[in-house]
Design brief:
The chain has 693 residues and is of the alpha+beta class. The protein is 47% helix and 14% strand. The strands form four sheets. Strands 9, 10, 11, 12, 13, 14, 15, 18 and 19 form a nine-stranded mixed β-sheet that branches. Strands 1, 2, 5, 6, 7 and 8 form a six-stranded mixed β-sheet that branches. Strands 3-4 form a two-stranded antiparallel sheet. It binds adenosine-5'-diphosphate (ADP) and magnesium ion. Adenosine-5'-diphosphate binds next to strand 9, strand 11 and strand 14.
């Protein structure tokens, strides 16, 4: 089958809707999807039966409400279409089954909020994200809420945040005489991942239990040759990527770009951007499909932010913008941004939002895995700042400091090769070290972790920008002379938030002290980053914009900390098991063999030198003793953690347990380099990173 035909073949998309629904029903459904009109419940029955018929024609026997509980993963419970009719079975999907489901909510994280309410939870159809058939089941994207209406997932608040932004952005546009039906936020998440051989993976308890290596000395070859980035794709990896593309395309996911990343065995897939909630669903599905396709190739896809120490970790660059249904991108500077008041106002709103709420933006991407990237000398740093590039940087400077803005003439670049065409130079250069970079007509939020649900970052982004739009609209709606009032506001806000702009190298040693001088936050780990969520100002922005209630906001922070504590606990327990049951005994056996060798040599002839063995015995025995002590300390400290109190337990995890784990790892990694490979119980970094051909 050709690509255009197979694209979206598993999706109940617009074309299928048009073909299978009566035209009135089709129009009503599209009005909900495109203009955000409340769903007319009376059409549900008709849509359900068309959907079922189509799904059955694709081989489906079951349907599921597909949702995103706060585990960070997706959840599904399959029901068959089967119903008795007389003594036969028929296939049926009722309107009610399409619209609501009732999974038991008590086994999903709720941050304690449900203790006061009830165990009952509902899933409700999100008609704006298309249903699809996968492995014999019709997947219906849904939101997940409790009996009393608290959100228990990432989807409902995401949709609320999109609604909030839509509402406030339209007020801003109206000031400029632009009327539109809808302003949607758009996202294109670039997904990084590692691929390793399944046989090697299965020999590593740490990878199986935690998704990352807890021990491992560096391979002789890391990423220093810079030869992997954009390098030739290996045959097996290429086969995986081709299969992945095909499968993603069949689900209507616009997988566009694939390439090798910086670290050995690291790769990336970038899709074409889409409306945020659809892009979020697509990314959740992408991560799942990546893992499944890898399995078919006897590979394992690692989505953890830091599977290997000493080489790059994985992120998910969240390209974000806002567009009207008429196709106007609010972050498009146009040919003369200095004259584009609407654009400058939007830019000022984003800058204000990111500065005012840098704490919750940082917290929205905080996790045990991502802590290894942010704040650990890796891209990007834990400090939030905004990169504007030369052109917009100069424009903002001229507004803040006075002085003339000289528009950079769009110059053609000659590359000195006559055969090669001349290409226009981009207005913004790339800055790979900034956590929040303007890239032409969108911002790229680079702090998101590779395994995160991108909804979490986008809930915050949409909410805080909606809030800034609201403040601006409140001020400008009554203005007599909009142009001058808007320009005064832009200048004032850019001055007030100038500190968040940083156009230089975010990895450089100068940035941390400079950022501290500017009063920017630098919360390096989850335990330190998340508590800002509890601050009144931050709760208020969610409440004001109708995204979270106070209780929901606090529950989210609790869940994030709880998840952090549990993750570190599992990592610590896995380390202990590996060290106590495998590593320490292996080293001890190897030392015993060395001792036996020394004795055997001496038995032959006292004068034979046993110095190499002897010095190794001394060194390894000492290291093994240190490792055993580090094990004891980790065990003792872990026993002291009071898991019930998330704030103090998370701090202990960050500031006591993680240093304990690092200390244990140091000793073990040294032993790995000295112990015979016949004795070492696990595949090494070389085995893991270089075994795929
Ligand atoms: P790079 O940043 O690697 O140079 P691109 O600029 O082409 O690559 O785009 C990176 C990602 O940004 C892609 O996933 C693309 O679809 C997405 N993107 C492009 N425009 C927008 C937009 N207006 N809103 C959201 N994402 C966008
Ligand atoms: Mg990019």
């Amino acid at each position: 089958m050709k690509l255009p035909e197979m694209f979206g073949e598993n999706v109940f998309n617009e074309a299928v809707q048009k073909e299978t629904l009566p035209s009135e029903v089709y129009k009503a459904l599209r009005a909900t999807i495109e203009a955000g009109k409340q769903l007319d419940v009376s059409i549900a029955g008709t849509v359900a039966s068309a959907m079922k018929k189509w799904a059955v024609s694709k081989g489906a026997t079951h349907y599921t409400h597909w949702f995103q509980p706060l585990t960070g993963l997706t959840a599904e419970k399959h029901d068959s279409f089967i119903e008795p009719e007389g003594d036969r079975a028929i296939m049926r999907l009722s309107g009610k089954s399409l619209i609501v489901g009732e999974p038991d909510a008590s086994s999903f994280p709720s941050g304690g909020s449900r203790a006061t309410y009830m165990a009952r939870g509902y899933t409700a159809w999100d008609p704006t994200s298309p249903a699809f058939v996968k492995e014999g089941t019709l997947y219906i994207p849904t939101i997940f809420i409790s009996y009393t209406g608290e959100t228990l997932d990432n989807k409902a608040p995401l949709l609320r945040s999109m609604t909030a932004l839509d509402k406030q952005a339209k007020r801003i546009l109206a000031l400029f005489g632009i009327n539109c039906k809808k302003v949607a936020t758009t996202v294109g998440p670039e997904q990084e991942y590692f691929l390793i051989d399944e046989d090697e993976y299965l020999k590593r308890k740490d990878l199986i239990m935690t998704g990352r290596t807890l021990f491992g000395a560096p391979a002789p070859r890391g990423q220093e040759l810079e030869d992997h980035y954009f390098g030739v794709i290996k045959t097996r990896v290429g086969e995986f990527m081709r299969d992945l593309d095909k499968e993603l395309w069949s689900y209507g996911i616009y997988s566009k770009t694939k390439h090798n990343e910086v670290a050995p065995a690291q790769h990336e897939m970038a899709p074409i951007f889409g409306t945020t909630n659809v892009a979020v669903d697509a990314n959740m599905l992408t991560m799942e499909i990546m893992k499944k396709v890898a399995q078919r190739h006897h590979l394992v896809c690692l989505l953890h932010e830091k599977p290997f120490e000493g080489i790059n970790g994985s992120g998910k660059h969240n390209n974000w913008s806002m567009s009207t249904d008429g196709g106007l991108n609010l972050l498009d500077p146009g040919p003369s941004p200095e004259k584009n008041t609407l654009f400058k106002l939007v830019l000022a709103a984003v800058i204000k939002a990111v500065d005012d709420y840098q704490g919750i933006l940082r917290a929205s991407v905080a996790s045990a895995g991502n802590d290894h990237r942010l704040g650990a000398n890796e891209a990007p740093p834990a400090i939030i700042s905004v990169y504007l590039g030369d052109q917009l940087g100069a424009l903002v400077d001229s507004i803040v400091n006075g002085g003339n803005y000289v528009a950079a003439a769009p110059c053609a670049t000659s590359i000195g090769v006559p055969e090669s065409p001349i290409f226009p130079k981009d207005a913004t250069d790339r800055n790979r070290t900034s956590p929040f970079a303007f890239t032409g007509n969108k911002f790229e939020f680079r702090m998101v972790g590779s395994q995160a649900n991108v909804a979490e970052a986008n809930i915050v982004l949409n909410t805080i920008v909606a809030d800034a739009f609201c403040a601006f609209a409140d001020e400008l709606e009554g203005a007599k002379d909009l142009e001058s009032a808007a320009n005064a506001l832009i200048a004032r806000e850019l001055k007030a938030h100038y500190r968040i702009i940083f156009n230089l190298d975010g990895y450089g040693p100068e940035w941390e002290p400079e950022a501290a001088k500017r009063g920017l936050l630098n919360n390096k780990n989850t335990a330190d980053a998340v508590p800002v969520f509890y601050e009144d100002k931050n709760v208020k922005v969610f409440v004001d914009r109708g995204v979270f209630t106070r209780e929901e906001a606090i529950a989210r922070a609790d869940i994030r900390l709880e998840n952090y504590i549990k993750t570190i606990n599992i990592e610590a327990l896995t380390m202990l098991e590996m060290a106590k049951r495998d590593i320490i005994p292996a080293v001890s056996d190897y030392v015993a063999e060395l001792c036996a060798n020394v004795a055997a040599k001496k038995a032959v002839d006292e004068s034979i030198s046993a110095e190499p063995e002897k010095s190794e015995i001394v060194e390894l025995a000492a290291l093994n003793e240190k490792a055993a002590k580090a094990v004891k300390k980790l065990e003792k400290d872990l026993a002291k953690i009071e898991f019930g109190d998330v704030k103090s337990a998370s701090k202990s995890m960050a500031h006591v347990i993680i240093p304990d784990m690092e200390a244990l790892r140091r000793e073990v990694d040294k032993m790995e380099t000295l112990t015979s490979s016949d004795y070492w119980p696990y595949p090494t970094y070389s085995d893991l990173l270089y075994s795929v051909k």
